[in-house]
Amino acid sequence: MPGPMAVLPYVIDGTAENFARVVLENSRRGPVAVNFWSPRAGPCLVLMPRLVRIAQEFGGRILLVMLNTDDHGELIARLGVRALPLVQVFRAGEVKDSLQGVSSEADLRALFSRHAPVSDAVMQAHVRGDTAQAARLAAQSALERPGDPYAALRVARLLVLDKRPREAFALLDALPSEARSEGEIAALHAHLALIATLLEGGDEPPISQADGLFREAAAAVAHDEYETACERLIACAACDPDYRQGLALRAARALAALPMADEARAHIDALLASRR
């Protein structure tokens, strides 16, 4: 049975067949809220229009997926959903937050805000091509949310678009180590670390064999040669596991998450397996 409220472009129906694509893959690009509901449960029908109203307020900054538990029992069991209604927020393929029961609009708004706080002013500046202004506004928003690493991630992405990769790297590099290990943040941090190395290396000779290998990886990334970059990073980690606090291996793992041909991914996976 389709969700009666799944009528907006950012409110869609989820199924067992599309869950990996619609929820897990999309959550690597931005937050996805999944509403687990049943047409036989009155509280679910009370919650649903509230969720849609909040989704409208956020205007697509968070994707809302309606998943009818009656139609997809095997998936629901695998996900461990036991009580309805339930709203879970997925980021980087994992559940990061949730609300159980018939939550108020204020509670739902707070849930969405924790994961998609970028203001309309930021989006408007970005859409009209003023990325520098968007980055400034996003940075101001991030200062108001010091405990939210994804606020820093949004600013970093805008800085990259504004051709300011050094500033983007410095911003992510200043995050606590546990935040830097988050999927989306880890991938961008590693990518920017390599770019920063390429930009800052200049004509100075490498200070060690590991440093030379890391710079070669940076140059390969600049040309989208991810297989070569991972080879150099694995070699760097083998040469000096503590180089830049273990950044070489983290960078290789982050690059492995980027889109690429199946053959290239298999090669990189084999390289990473050799370091386990």
- Give the overall pLDDT as a whole number: 81
Secondary-structure class: alpha/beta
**CATH topological fold name of the largest domain:** Glutaredoxin
Helix content: 55-70%
Low-confidence stretches: 1-6
**Can you name the CATH architecture of the largest domain?**
3-Layer(aba) Sandwich
Protein name: Thioredoxin domain-containing protein
InterPro entries: Thioredoxin-like_sf, Thioredoxin_domain
GO cellular component, one term: cytoplasm
GO molecular function: protein-disulfide reductase activity
Q: What descriptors fit this protein?
A:
globular, Glutaredoxin, five-stranded mixed sheet, 276 residues, 5 strands, alpha/beta
Overall description:
By secondary structure, the protein is an alpha/beta fold. It is 57% helix and 11% strand. It has three domains: 105 residues, Glutaredoxin; 59 residues; 98 residues, no CATH class. β2, α2 and β3 form a beta-alpha-beta unit. The N terminus is likely disordered. This is Thioredoxin domain-containing protein.
Short description:
Helices cover 57% and strands 11% of the residues. By secondary structure, the protein is α/β, with parallel strands linked by helices.
